[in-house]
Amino acid sequence: MISEKVQRIGASPTLKISAKAKAMKAEGLDVIDLSVGEPDFPTPENVKDAGIKAIRDNFTKYTENDGVPALRKAIAQRLKEDHGLEYSPKEIIVSAGAKASLFHLVQTLVDEGEEVIIPAPFWVTYPECVNLAKGKSVVVPTREEDGFLLTPEALKAAISPATKALILNNPSNPTGAAYGRDKLLALAEVIRGEDIYVIADEIYDKLVYDNFKFTSFAALGEDIKKKTVIVNGVSKAYSMTGWRIGFAAGPAEIIGGMSKIQSHTTSNACSIAQKASLEAYNGPQHDVQKMVAEFQRRRNFCLMRLATVPGLSCFKPQGAFYLFPNVKSFYDKEFGGARIRNSYGMAYYLLKEAKVAIVPGDSFGADDYIRLSYATSMENLEKSMDRIVEALAKLKTAKKTRRVALNNTVTRVRKAVPVEAAVDGRMRDALVAEMEGHLGYEGRYEWNANINGAIVQLRTNVGHLNDFWTENWPPAQLDADVEPHGVIYAVDGIAGREPRAFYNPETRTGVLVNTDSYGPLRSLALGLALDIAERMAGAGGAGSVRGMSADIGGDGLILVGPPGTKKSELLFGLLADPRFRIHANDIVFVRLAGGRAAADSAERKLYMPTNTVELDGRLAPLFDKSRCENVVIRKEDCTDAGCQRGEDCRLDRGSPYCYKASKDAHALLDPSWLGGPSAFVRRTNLRWIFLLRNDDTSPAVVELSKEEALRVLEAGEAAGAKKSLTPGKAQPFFNPHWLGAGRGEAAMADAGRLESQKAFFGRLLEVAKCYLFNSGVAGADKIKEIVGK
Ligand code: PMP
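A: This is the predicted complex of the input protein with 4'-deoxy-4'-aminopyridoxal-5'-phosphate.
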């Protein structure tokens, strides 16, 4: 498992989107990429020559950690000429791009829990830098009406005793907003009175338009200079993004800290690129001026084109090379059935419909906007503006849409709950009295289910549990004089109680407190029915196998293993072959008689995790018609971190729900919907048991002796499995529903049940062959080979 702090960060969205645009181009699609932040100009010839000369001169070894002295001197000279600033070489560090400087700087300044103020819209990297330093980003929104500039009032209000620094990006990526000297002075006034640093990211200092006069934050006074670290580099102004040279200039103590970190990360920046950068800073500067003039022309062109789009407004930037148009008025419009809900949806739409890659504003903390870069050729800009204008014109106000009426219940509790599996009679009586007290008669549901022949009565006050219960099990007689074999109370809304399950074996009473989702109820019901089945058969004559099973020609196979061993994938792999029929997707009840293992699926429906949609194209439309539970309908509830950050989230694109966004979402699927009554069976004769593991190295299949199989089953963990069900804890027979040993202290003493379970598996293994199967190296075809089909 990777660290939590890294799990929490996302890869740079701009890099991801441009990678996608590149991939689409490689497929032959005419995509125009307005997502990348780099000039389309070549690196100036004199700069390239200096790099080539460095190679010829064998300047290809480690340099000084902080950068070659000549380059640091040239940087100091530039800062003096451009901004009137004096820095000694000790106050300057050269790094592998401004990004590396920024990262080392934040690591140097920020301790765990310290706050960094970041005005929004912000460049995507700032908050992640702070996260990786375990600091806390304090995002301060700016307003378009204020020119996207941080006001002194907002800055003051954001400062707390924990504030360590402000990151001020001038001119700004993504808005292009630039702070003039007066605005900066007003912010400096606030900084003066506080013990905080300013990280001045001035990488776009040379890219300013309309005669804007750039002022460095450090140039606002000696006292301010002492609190400021400038970050800059050659990437943007000299068209050198790939050379990876940036720098930081600030107080020697801070630069010294950064130097220590750099000595353990990258060491010096590339020697060749340093020589080229030296030429960039020392050589003639007219290429920069030419580029700026061209960018201004492109900016004006794009602004002019976007101004013609009804409903779109665009701030006129004074620097950098981005436009940040407000596209909110298009949200909730649609084209061809695709509804746009937010900036991700807009980015997706423009990529698909206009073949133009842009970055969603949400990545920069401003969801009403999108960012497009005009640092690409005029030809590309002309084409892409035509396409954007055309695509936006196609978006129409969505008709009152026929909402797909998903039959979905979102519950409060979503996970398994702790089970006390052997409460004594006194406690049982107390629990029943408490439950009855809460249930009363109004709003009480009672229903007898037939679970593998046992009549189990549910008494609940949760309508959703009653719905799933009555649908999932065959009904049993519901006359007053039919005594159920077991009873389950499922009572919600009891103040002060944690969600919990209890079971009293003597009276076969289950109690489920404050749990409104079906999973725990179903599990308790299965455990109760198993207890009954085992006792009735006696001496290991009946039992259960927890796994996914399929039938072929009357013979059954079952896939057993902890999560992560690809049970579903294998099952659906088998079902793709019409000779295989689905039997059960979670548990089978087995009776041993006459040298056969008759395995029954006790449920009418398959309680199926909806994230299986990807395994079989038939599933999604079937789930649409099934009763569902906890299907994700809001992006906030999505737990699929990988997909969530992708640019094609279904929820963003207007889908009212997503089946794969959570492991806790289930549907009650009618198995006959998977291909008619002949595609599933309720009973099969179990002949093959596949104990699954998933690794890269073990052999695909190992046939196990009865003793070996028993050992693996009892331990409850297939050898070499990547994940176990409850890490560190054995799950006897891989069966979390089984209410025997392993469920609480008292149950551990229930050696009788463990023995009878062992006896059952011993007998089962006389009639069914058992294999250790490695799903990491073999798939459904291998299973077919083994079962001889
Ligand atoms: N700061 C800002 C605001 C940027 O936009 C970028 C590049 N996108 C950088 C820093 C990093 O530049 P470099 O290529 O030097 O790492």
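The CA atoms of residues 233 and 246 lie 4 Å apart. The radius of gyration is 33 Å.
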